[in-house]
Amino acid sequence: MVVSLKETLVTWPPDELCSLNPHIVERIEEMLKIHRHSYVIATSTLHGKDEHAALIALQQKFFDTNLGILVAHNAQDCTDHMSTIAKVMCKTGKEVIQAQVRWVLSSQTSSEVIVQALEQLGLSQHQSNVLLDCFGSIAAVAASSAAQLQQSSVDSITCNNILDFFDQDKILV
């Protein structure tokens, strides 16, 4: 929220009490309820004694909140502050794309590893892919019953081979 320091107080120049404008206080409180990170950019061309009094009144009122108060002299300062906040708060397009690519690669790699492991049981690549599609993991294949394996369209000989392999005393890592 961008607000002029003169608008933050009821009277200008401020008296000794420095009473805040209730309308501005209400708007800031509403913003704090809605947004996790809230910022007020207080603008004034000159930052003298009166402006400092207004800033102190704002800081005292919202001291125990997550409100960030930034000071600006002109419109350029305001846009610089907004740009900095946006850069800090938002992920870059590069980071988003890198995260998506990492997810795709990890999911492809894990499925490839599962298929290769199932092929080590003497299954064809097609049978391995069918089991992967049906069960999703080697642990699920190992825990499955004969009926579940046959429901995945694996023939009875292959089903018995899988059950025999996982029934042996082996440690699977």
**Low-confidence parts lasting 5 or more residues at pLDDT below 50?**
none
Q: Report the mean per-residue pLDDT as an integer.
A: 81
- Principal-axis shape equals rod-shaped
Structural class: mainly alpha
List SSEs in N-to-C order.
EHHEHEHHHHHH
Using the CA coordinates, give the radius of gyration.
Answer: 32 Å
Largest sheet: 3 strands, parallel
Number of helices: 9
End-to-end separation in angstroms reads 55 Å
The percent of residues in helical segments reads: 55-70%
Please count the beta strands (DSSP E, at least 2 residues each). Answer: 3
Pfam family, one: SCRE
InterPro entries: SCRE
Put the structure in a nutshell:
The protein is mostly helical. It has helices spanning 5-8, 22-34, 49-61, 75-89, 93-119, 125-135, 138-143, 146-151, 156-167; strands at residues 2-4, 38-43, 67-72.
